Amino acid sequence: MRNKKIIVMALLSASVIILQLLSGLVSSMLPFSISLVLIPVSIAAWYYGVKGGLIVGGTFGVIVFLQCLFGLDKGGATMIYQWNQPIETAAVTIGRALLLGLALGLLSKFKTKFKPYKYIYAAFAPIINTTLFVAMYAVLFNSHFLEAASTADNILSFIIIGFVGINFLIELAVNLVILPPVLKALSKSIR
Questions:
Q1: Are 30 and 75 in contact, with CB atoms under 8 Å apart?
Q2: Which ranges of 28-116 would DSSP assign to H, the alpha helix?
Q3: How big is the CA angle at 39 (ends 55 and 167), to the nearest 5 degrees?
Q4: pLDDT for position 31
Q5: What is the CA angle 39-118-34, rounded to 5?
Q6: Which parts of the chain have pLDDT scores under 70?
Q7: Residue 149: enclosing H or E segment and its boundaries?
Q8: Cβ distance 72 to 78 under 8 Å?
Q9: What is the pLDDT of residue 149?
Q10: How far is CA 173 from the centre of its chain?
């Protein structure tokens, strides 16, 4: 059973790497970033709890930070090189992903036979990810956040529409459509 768990975690971590690199490629062609890796992080946390969420979530964070470091994520590269804030960028990328894995692992403890719970859980991944990102960005990059928000009519519309809106809606839709059936399909093979 231990070997099976290690293999599944390795496969989920590998899928995070592939999906994040693909989403980085897609995002480079769009004016916003899309994160498709919430599904493997959610799967790891659902079946393996906090430990699974932290391992696969941590993989997600490290890959995003490396993309920022090597300039594959333009916004992250700006935070590191133009704003000279690599520690804060690591906190927003790696720290946020670890907190996401932790939160999803804790939420997985409440899974029930209540059929819609998988959909509720699927919705929590993008909600938690986006909330953590906005909160950490607003705290760690406060002056840059306020400067960008000052050009908007109000800060709430800036956050919801301009800063994370499209990204969040796509992540939410993808998670709601894909994650519940995948969790159901994997339930026999992972357990």
A1: no
A2: 38-69, 74-77, 86-90, 96-108
A3: 115
A4: 61
A5: 30
A6: 1, 27-28, 30-34, 145-146, 148-164, 191
A7: helix 142-150
A8: no
A9: 60
A10: 14
The DSSP-derived string for 122-133 is HHHHHHHHHHHH
14-21: long-range contacts, CB 8 A cutoff, minimum separation 24:
15/40, 16/40, 16/41, 16/56, 16/59, 16/60, 16/63, 17/59, 17/63, 20/60, 20/63, 20/64, 20/67, 21/63, 21/67
pTM of the model: 0.88
CA distances to 83, 117, 119 from 71, in Å: 14, 39, 35
DSSP state of 36: -
Give the CA count within 13 Å in the CB-facing half-sphere of 190.
19
How many of the other CB atoms lie within 10 Å of CB of 155? 15
Report how far Cα 35 is from the mean position of its chain's Cα atoms. Answer: 6
Using only C-alpha atoms, the chain has a radius of gyration, in whole angstroms, of: 17
Q: How far is CA 152 from CA 142, 145, 148, 160, 162, in A?
A: 16, 11, 8, 11, 9
Alpha carbon distance, N-terminus to C-terminus of the chain: 9
